[in-house]
Design goal:
Elements: H1 4-9, E1 31-32, E2 41-42, H2 60-78, H3 80-85, H4 92-113, E3 117-119, H5 121-133, E4 148-150, E5 157-158, E6 167-169, E7 176-177, H6 188-191, E8 193-194, E9 200-204, E10 221-225, E11 234-238, E12 259-262, E13 269-272, E14 297-300, E15 303-306, E16 308-309, E17 321-322, E18 327-329, E19 335-337, E20 354-357, E21 360-363, E22 382-384, E23 390-392
Parallel strand pairs: 16-17
Antiparallel strand pairs: 1-2, 3-4, 5-9, 6-9, 7-8, 10-11, 12-13, 14-15, 18-19, 20-21, 22-23
Helix pairs in contact: 2-4, 2-5
Length: about 400
């Protein structure tokens, strides 16, 4: 299978809060098309009245539709090959993304009703507006960080990160569900939460220069080893340096999201991602000799080139010509369909609706079936329960 596929789907912007991944168009139409044949509404229109004269409540469908629409418009404008890989177009992408977000916002609504989250409607409006207007480079980060904020203090019980104020839910020993399509990887902080019968406790983020040995760093910080491999000294360093600032020293820290540290050690500065046709660098060694490529681009032969997605029977390679979801780049460099139910697995792979069991493609497990991971369950289901996993929808349960 193409090695570049994972790089493509992980190249999307980090949309919300703390990403689960790596550290490393304008328009005048402001209406949002409804799903299921509903009535179109204007962007920002109130969809649920305030409760008891207070602020409006979180509407899961509204929030999912608006964020999905803005996300897909950005991806189509700046990362079209990412959507092509998953066979998503302008019509299907918003519905696909919203269908995965809405159950999780339903969980967030339950947490908000219980007083464990606060919802800011104006911050959601600002999030959507920023996504609709943001340029492709540098990539946006933390745009939607403030419309859902936790209220649980360190040490108090929690079920997922968003409940915690100034920290995270320490789920190291808890059952955690992170089942979502890779094309939505940038929404992962909404999609990773405890499930089943396990509760955890909120833990405060480590601050700048504090130890990050076993503790997550706070916003705009990154964990770095200031010692050696034999005697590590893990510390949280700044990750908010702007264009032209000195980077990758123990006193300066790291570049902000969408920028990379380029130049000789001790003299390196933060630069914007390279555009199509510009010189680029690969690898993970810092500082870099040249910038990394921006959204939807691949560093090929030292220059940034756009990804492309071939159809079945068309030529593919291990760099920038990908096969669509549900297919495989064969040894003959041709895109072929992955096997389906009852067929032999192809290098341990099956189509998206099946998994490889004993070298035969078998259907993913239905709701209520036993499981050990979310990858075994049918689309839209997670493996819930810490002791006896079962495929099912993520449901809100209060942790005390």
């Amino acid at each position: 299978m193409k090695n570049s596929a994972s790089r493509l789907v992980c190249s999307s912007f980090a949309l919300v809060i703390t990403a689960c991944g790596s550290d490393t168009g304008d328009g005048d139409d402001t209406s949002i098309a409804p799903r299921d044949g509903g009535v179109a509404r204007d962007a920002g229109e109130e969809v649920e009245p305030p409760r008891d004269g207070g602020p409006p409540a979180l509407d899961p469908t509204d929030a999912a539709d608006r964020i999905a629409g803005a996300f897909c418009a950005y991806a189509r404008r700046c990362q079209s090959a990412n959507l092509d890989y998953f066979a998503l177009d302008e019509a299907s992408c918003p519905a696909f993304a919203a269908a995965h977000l809405e159950p999780l916002f339903t969980t967030a609504r339950a947490a908000a009703d219980d007083g464990r989250l606060s919802y800011d409607a104006a911050a959601l409006d600002a999030c959507v507006a920023e996504l609709e207007q943001h340029a492709c480079a540098p990539r946006p980060s933390n745009i939607c960080a403030d419309f859902l904020l936790g209220t649980r203090a360190p040490g108090e019980a929690c079920r997922f990160d968003l409940e915690c104020a100034g920290g995270y839910c320490d789920t190291a020993d808890a059952a955690t569900s992170c089942g979502y399509p890779a094309v939505l990887s940038d929404l992962a902080s909404f999609m990773c939460m405890n499930t089943g019968d396990v509760c955890a406790a909120c833990v405060a983020y480590a601050g700048v220069n504090a130890s990050c040995d076993g503790v997550r760093c706070g916003a705009d910080l990154r964990c770095a080893n200031l010692g050696t491999q034999a005697n590590p000294d893990l510390r949280c360093l700044r990750r908010d340096l702007g264009v032209g600032q000195t980077c990758f020293t123990t006193t300066s820290g790291f570049c902000a999201f969408g920028l990379h540290c380029v130049g000789p050690s001790g003299m390196s500065t933060c630069v914007v991602d390279a555009a199509e046709g510009e010189t680029c660098a690969t690898g993970n060694d810092l500082p870099l000799a040249a910038p990394r490529c921006g959204n939807g681009l691949l560093c090929e032969g030292g220059t940034c080139q756009p990804y492309s997605v071939s159809g079945l029977g068309e030529a593919c390679d291990n760099t920038g010509r990908l096969c669509p979801l549900g297919s495989f780049c064969s040894n003959a460099s041709i895109c072929v369909a992955l096997p389906s139910g009852g067929e032999p697995c192809l290098q341990n792979l099956c189509d998206p609706d099946h998994i490889c069991v004993g070298n035969t493609c078998a259907p993913r497990s239905a709701e209520g079936s036993a499981c050990t991971s979310g990858g075994e369950c049918a689309t839209g289901l997670a493996c819930t329960g810490a002791t006896t996993g079962r495929c099912g929808a993520v449901q809100w349960e209060v942790c005390e």
